[in-house]
Amino acid sequence: MEIRAVSATPQTWSGDALVLSMYSGELSPQLQDLDRERLGGTLQELIAEQKFKGDVNTSVSGRVGTGSQIKKVMLIGLGEPAKANTDNWRKAAAQATKWANQAKVKTLALHFPLFNADAELTAQVVTEGVLLASHQDKRFKSKSEEEDKNEPTLETIELLESNAQAGIDRGRLVCEGVILARELVSAPANVVTPAKLAETAQEIAQAHPDRFALEILEREQCQALGMGAFLGVSQASDLPPKFIHLTYKQGENPVKVAIVGKGLTFDSGGLNLKTGGSGIEMMKIDMAGAAAALGCAHTIGALQPQNLEVHFIIAACENMISGRAMHPGDILTAANGKTIEVNNTDAEGRLTLADALVFADRLEPKAIVDLATLTGACIVALGEGIGGLWATDDELAQRLEQSAKAAGEKFWRMPLEEAYWEGMKSPIADCKNAGGRYGGAITAALFLKQFVEKTTAWAHLDVAGPVWTEKESGYNNSGGTGYPVRTLVNWVLSMAS
Ligand code: BES
Ligand code: MN
Ligand code: ZN
User: Fold this and answer.
1) Disulfide-capable partner of 393 in 41, 274, 365, 457 (CB 3.0 to 4.6 Å)?
2) Ligand 1: which of 282, 375, 437 to mutate, judged by most atoms within 8 Å of the beta carbon?
3) What's the rounded Cα separation, in Å, for the pair 236 and 321?
4) pLDDT, tens digit, for every residue of 86-108?
């Protein structure tokens, strides 16, 4: 499917379907003229019929009378101008795309007001809405006739009155990263293994050998680095662990940052086995942090920002059971020498992240951001649509909040309440890996903080809720959402300037 910026206007364009948009209120004089001159009054009819007011996420659509150069028309509401945000543009573009495919449209035109007078940003977010809504994951379905009938029909989409092809191209590269993350998350644990994550990192590096360096540490190398926490989690699996260190570098004196992603390709819980009703069958998603890190790496590699050195770090393994499994109560030693009493083998993500964070910390970056499907408690606190954000540095927190807002991804800042560390103390080791039931997302964050010793700006994103959706909505179809690739890309780009 091609997306292009064209100078044509709604008055001059012709093709299968035209999508117009408006803020809340009355139809503008321009649209009234267009309706009269080219659409045979279809818009006014639809508006009257449906009592359409231009509210956000609402639309009317219909067929234009025969003989017109435009066969179908849709009008989408963008809501109050004062409440405008780019995500409404993404969702509107998604709505248009889904409608057009259902209506068997091949050539589609989109006409949107400029967001903040920024033509490139407008083109970018519209492109994101189109491409993310179009992405359907059929990798694991054999082809049936029913499927064939529902094949998307769209061939070309033109953004009217636009010269912002650069915004379209950027949106496309962002979506490649989001879709890479979605497909890694949606694929089952017998497909996406630690080795598969390592291979994916290799593909990203090979696409731009001038920009990336890749190091995959095998079990023995991790042992030599003292990564006892990571290796403890991995030890029951028949699949070898892979410690992935992918580095993007451009420029002479680059700003150095690190992104650490939780990479559990399956989390059975270990001997504290996830039992009925715990969602064990969903635990293929426990590498969504790693998937987002790789998605971000893909997009950053393609966008090629200057003066940046970005370290993508993933301690990839499975949390399984076998005669070799860690016992509840085992004591592990992390790479920084800290000892951990494993009072719950299902609090495994933080163990793998401990060694990954120590590794990141030793690189002495300006900031570290980790992202992890870390706790069910975070989903209890914030629901499925919002990620938790913890940070030791206000500037980093604000930068991430801004990046997320622009990305249309939601985060809520949570406290690093030191008093709660009390519940993580162990009589026999430096700390335990799990605290009590209350404040479980916070104690998990406090645990991670023990392994960031030198870097003053560290943030932890708990994305257990938003990386997956059962129901399609907006530009997300059911399955992995690719969260929070867009936030990460925005954040990384913001660090270069
Ligand atoms: N991977 C899970 C967290 C999770 C839950 C992710 C639901 C996605 C959806 C994590 O490893 C885990 O099991 N956490 C435990 C921690 C507890 C044992 C302290 C939890 O949240 O119950
Ligand atoms: Mn677990
Ligand atoms: Zn887990």
Assistant:
1) 457
2) 375
3) 5
4) 999 999 999 999 999 999 999 99
